[in-house]
From TrEMBL:
The keyword Lyase applies. SUPFAM superfamilies: PLP-dependent transferases. This is Threonine aldolase 1. The lineage of its organism: Eukaryota, Metazoa, Chordata, Craniata, Vertebrata. Belongs to the threonine aldolase family. It comes from Cyprinus carpio carpio. Residues 56-88 have a biased composition (Basic residues). NCBIfam families: GntG_guanitoxin. Its cofactor is pyridoxal 5'-phosphate.
Length: 425
């Protein structure tokens, strides 16, 4: 029988183990599936993260009492809830309070996704149509969010060149600020966005000195600073500091509870009280004000309380995989170890005869030769990435043992490729 293992960017196996969490719904692991179960108060909620339909069905159907508490999106709901339902609704507030304290910010807001969270931040910071934000040209906000800030918020973007460490040149930033405003030819520069860790640049951690200097430039020119901190907890772990030590330099932050933190869903947006009050309105307008968020927040609380510490493991596994690629015989992989700082690895293939897409396909596929050589089939999901690189990401559910299997597979693929080239020559 083949054994299938996954290292994956898109398909994740979420493991959320039982804890002493004070909420009455406790996520537990459903092995080998993409599902997670929330248990408590006599109800069992099957939670299907990818492609699921939001909230939740029980195996046997939740008790009537629970249905009333959660109010699925199909249930009629009029006016503000009372009684039991309130205890479920209260829970996002606990999560938001925990998050705000952790971020060192006045308030926080639970939203469905990182993309929506970033968009809300842009909408709140840039209040007038035609306001401008300055972003890195390789930032997630600029590259992967469909220009939502322009489409939906009427906000114009100017870009600065993203450097290989995820920062940008502050003189270039200053040159992009619209010093001509209020001349009617120009938009008004309001906001600068940073990303930490930097996704496209391979999980690079922004240096605290950069953030400090950036904030001082922003203060000088009356700009606000938003951090797309989808993976800022990885940055905090990599630097060995509290998240608030990073976030003290920002006016707002968006932190994903999924990704490395392993919650099935959710992002928390942090900022000042006034910022969050306005964010609540923007979230509602974008359709993100979910009645069901109390149940989802139970997993989010565990993500913040229990999952940050274990990120070290992801960073360690990422590094050992990177080192093993360099030691591969035959030499097929190019890695700059100095750039491996968190849970994302980008590497190149030395042989132009194998493209990143072919390589990823090979890592994901299993053939008989492999089963014979390794004693089992190992399926590793990676991603052909920008600039001819391959991207691999470690997260909850990818163990040291999985990493060793992925190393074996990468070495096997290199070996097989060499034999093929020899035969073809
Ligand atoms: C840096 C960064 N920001 C924002 C997002 C968007 O998050 P979501 O997929 O929850 O919308 C991602 C997703 O990969 C990301 O990597």
């Amino acid at each position: 029988m083949h054994c299938y293992r996954y290292i994956t960017v898109q398909r994740r196996r979420h493991e959320l183990q039982s804890t002493n969490d004070s909420s009455s719904f406790t996520p537990v692991l459903l092995p080998q599936t993409s599902s997670c179960v929330l248990r408590g108060s006599g109800a069992t909620v099957l939670w299907v993260p990818a492609g699921g339909h939001g909230i939740s069905r029980s195996h046997r159907g939740p008790p009537q009492r629970y249905r009333h508490q959660t109010r699925s999106s199909h249930a009629p709901s009029h006016g503000r809830g009372r009684g039991r339902r309130r205890c479920v609704r209260r829970r996002p507030y606990e999560l938001q309070k925990i998050a705000a304290d952790m971020f060192g910010m006045e308030a926080a807001l639970y939203v469905p996704t990182g993309t929506m969270s970033n968009l809300i931040a842009v909408m709140v910071h840039c209040r007038e149509r035609g306001d401008e934000m300055i972003v890195g040209d390789l930032s997630h906000i600029h590259v992967y969010e469909q220009g939502g800030s322009a489409q939906l918020a009427g906000v114009h973007s100017a870009t600065v060149t993203t450097l290989s460490d995820g920062t940008f040149d502050l003189d270039q930033l200053i040159s992009k600020i619209r010093h001509g405003y209020p001349d009617p030819h120009y938009p008004r520069s309001r906001l600068v966005c940073v990303e930490n860790t930097h996704n496209i640049q391979g999980g690079r951690v922004l240096p605290l000195s950069f953030l400090q200097e950036l904030r001082s430039v922003a203060d000088n020119f009356g700009l606000t600073v938003h951090m797309d901190g989808a993976r800022v907890m990885n940055a905090a772990v990599a630097l060995g500091v509290q998240p608030s030590a990073i976030l003290q330099h920002c006016h707002s932050v968006s932190v994903c509870l999924s990704k490395g933190l392993g919650a099935p869903v959710g992002t928390v947006l942090g900022g000042s009280k006034d910022f969050i009050q306005r964010a609540v309105r923007a979230r509602k307008a974008l359709g993100g004000g979910m009645r069901q968020s109390g149940v989802l927040a139970a997993a989010g609380k565990i993500a913040l309380s229990d999952m940050i510490g274990r990120m070290k493991e992801d960073h360690r596994n990422t590094k050992s995989f990177a080192q093993a690629l360099l030691q591969c015989d035959p030499p097929m992989y190019q890695v700059d170890l100095t750039t491996v700082e968190s849970n994302i690895l980008r590497f190149r293939l030395r042989d132009a005869h194998m493209s990143p897409a072919e390589f990823c396909e090979r890592m994901a596929g299993i053939d008989e030769e492999e089963v014979k050589a390794l004693g089992q089939g190992v399926q590793v999901l990676m991603f052909p990435h920008v600039g001819g690189t391959v991207r691999a990401v470690w997260h909850l559910g990818i163990s040291e043992e999985d990493t060793q299997l992925a190393i074996q597979k990468a070495h096997f693929v290199a070996h097989q490729h060499k034999l093929k080239s020899i035969r073809a020559a």
